[in-house]
């Protein structure tokens, strides 16, 4: 969800209704295939989290 939030920031303000709905999703939780629940956005610095995600992807090449 961190990546999605970052992408959607570029479009914020175009459609207030969608902005509000997306904000509600980000306040919630997601559930993995094993039924474990996580906050939609992790606590802490989201830019650092996203950079770590990109590093993981890069390392898999």
TrEMBL record:
GO function term, MF aspect, one: hydrolase activity
Keywords: Hydrolase
Protein name: Metal-dependent phosphohydrolase, putative
Species name: Entamoeba nuttalli (strain P19) (Amoeba)
